[in-house]
Every structure is written in structure tokens, then in C-alpha cells.
Design brief:
Keywords: Isoprene biosynthesis, Nucleotidyltransferase, Transferase
CATH class: Alpha Beta
Bound molecules: cytidine-5'-triphosphate, magnesium ion
InterPro entries: IspD, IspD/TarI, IspD/TarI_cytidylyltransf_bact, ISPD_synthase_CS, Nucleotide-diphossugar_trans
GO biological process, one term: isopentenyl diphosphate biosynthetic process, methylerythritol 4-phosphate pathway
CATH topology: Spore Coat Polysaccharide Biosynthesis Protein SpsA, Chain A
Distance between the termini: 38 Å
Mean pLDDT: 95
Strand content: 15-25%
Number of domains: 1
Low-confidence stretches: none
Shape: globular
Protein name: 2-C-methyl-D-erythritol 4-phosphate cytidylyltransferase
Family: Belongs to the IspD/TarI cytidylyltransferase family. IspD subfamily.
Number of strands: 12
Helix content: 25-40%
Structural class: alpha/beta
Length: 238
């Protein structure tokens, strides 16, 4: 069965500051989304990439893909409109998958620099039988759980999880298609939000495994992340 990548790219990028939707902003002269599509198409396993565009930006995204990816190395490309939340956007991407797709990678457009080796490590773990796979890294910072208070006010600490047992998760997250579909259907019914696809699969009681992530798979969230991403690209070009 084929492997497809769904790329949610319909966010506004509020934390990056005012401007074009985040995925369409330029990174060293090329839109972030194009870097992300190339990263997925670079994996030999991926035969289809579904881009989930801002609902008012479907035509713009189609022409960006035409301009930058005259050939995506034989990888098929689809563009569908996204929703108001990441979860809804991912769901729109899943619904566009043709029959014959057995495994799905869900990859944030906001992680444009993920190395192909990380993508392949996720695919490998799926092939080895895991229904859900996430790339992740150990944390540098100790994490505190707090009782959230008013913004700016001191917050009481509730717990300090043992750092060595924590992992910060990245994308692409890989799934057996049926498992991912069931997880999204269950969450849509419950009405609860989720920031992470693997978390939804955990709630269904399916096992999720972690494989090593990569520093360069960091998420471009705030303005400083753009500086880091352009520095990584500059280093790749030398
Ligand atoms: N995303 C999406 N649809 C939404 C919200 C987010 O497809 N309604 C996508 C983003 O485009 C991004 C990924 O989900 O590729 C991860 O989300 P995030 O980094 O939070 O991006 P934004 O939501 O765009 O940023 P912000 O939260 O700062 O507005
Ligand atoms: Mg967001």
C-alpha cells in the first residue's frame, strides 16, 4: 500500500507576526511550504503529497507549487482547503486521500527543514508494524507543570516531571491510515481539541512509538526561528 504525506499549511502564523499566512512566507527566497513539500517528496516512500492550504489561498498555493515544483520527482500533488484549527485541516487532508493509501505521514508546513533521514526513520518504524510513530528529541530545559494564573502573575508549581523521561515531539508523525481516521473521527465527535495527532491515537488506546527526531526539524513559530532556519539553509548551501 502507498504512503501519502498530508501537510497542514492553513495556519495564519499569529506568533510570527502580521503578514502572509506562515506557510507561504519566504525562507531564503523560497516559501516555507515549498521546502516542506520537497522534504516529503524526497523520501522514496512518499508517492502523494496532500497540501492543506488556507481556505482563501487554494489557487495561490496551486500556482506556488507549479512555479517551484515543475517536477516533484514523480510525487503526485493535491491541494485542498483547510479549516479553523490544525485538527480540522488535518482532517480535510485525510478526507482527500485516495483508496490505496495505507500509511499516512502528517507533517507541519512549519517544519520546513526536516531531513529526509528523519522522514525515512518514521516510515521504517511503520513498516516494522507500529500503528503510530512520532519523531522526538530529549528536552534541554527542565519542565514544570503549573496551575495557570492570570498573565504575568506568579503561578504555583504543581509537579516537575523527570526530564530524562520527556521527549519533545516533531513531525512527520506516521500512522496506519485506518487508525488515524478513527482517531480523527473520535476527536471530532468528542468536541475536544488536540494539538497532536499521535495524542489522539493514544486516547483511542493504540500504541504510539517514538523514533529519534532531528534538531533541524524544529518548528518555525516565532521571528527568531526564521533567523535560525535561514542559517541552517545557508550552512546546507556551502
Ligand atoms: N495549521 C493548519 N490549519 C490551522 C492551523 C494550523 O493547517 N487552522 C497548520 C499550520 O499551517 C502549521 C501547522 O498546522 O503548518 C502547525 O501549526 P502552528 O505552528 O501553530 O502554525 P500556525 O497556526 O500558522 O501559527 P500560530 O499558532 O502562531 O498562528
Ligand atoms: Mg497554531
Amino acid at each position: 500500500p502507498a504512503t501519502a504525506a498530508v501537510i497542514p499549511a492553513a495556519g495564519r502564523g499569529v506568533r510570527l507576526g502580521p503578514g502572509t499566512p506562515k506557510a507561504l512566507r519566504s525562507l531564503s527566497g523560497t516559501p516555507m511550504l515549498i521546502h516542506a513539500v520537497r522534504a516529503m517528496a524526497a523520501s522514496r516512500a512518499v508517492s502523494l503529497v496532500v497540501v492543506v492550504a488556507p481556505a482563501d489561498g487554494v489557487d495561490e498555493v496551486k500556482s506556488l507549487l507549479d512555479d517551484h515544483l515543475a517536477s516533484a520527482g514523480g510525487t503526485e500533488l493535491l491541494v485542498v482547503p483547510g479549516g479553523d484549527t490544525r485538527q480540522e485541516s488535518v482532517r480535510a487532508g485525510i478526507e482527500a486521500l485516495p483508496p490505496g493509501v495505507g500509511t499516512v505521514l502528517v507533517h507541519d508546513a512549519a517544519r520546513p527543514l526536516v531531513p529526509v533521514d528523519t522522514v525515512d526513520a518514521v516510515v521504517e518504524a511503520l513498516r516494522a508494524g507500529a500503528p503510530a510513530v512520532v519523531p522526538a528529541l530529549p528536552l534541554a530545559d527542565t519542565v514544570k507543570e503549573v496551575e495557570p494564573g492570570a498573565p504575568g502573575a506568579a503561578e504555583p508549581v504543581v509537579a516537575t516531571p523527570v526530564r530524562s523521561r520527556l521527549r519533545a515531539v516533531q513531525t512527520p508523525q506516521g500512522f496506519d491510515r485506518a487508525v488515524l481516521q478513527r482517531a480523527h473521527a473520535a476527536v471530532a465527535l468528542s468536541g475536544e481539541g488536540a494539538t497532536d495527532d499521535a495524542g489522539m491515537v493514544e486516547q483511542l488506546g493504540h500504541p504510539v512509538v517514538v523514533v529519534p527526531g532531528h534538531e533541524e526539524a524544529f518548528k518555525v513559530t516565532r521571528p527568531l526561528d526564521l533567523v535560525l532556519a535561514e542559517a541552517v539553509l545557508a550552512r546546507r548551501r556551502v
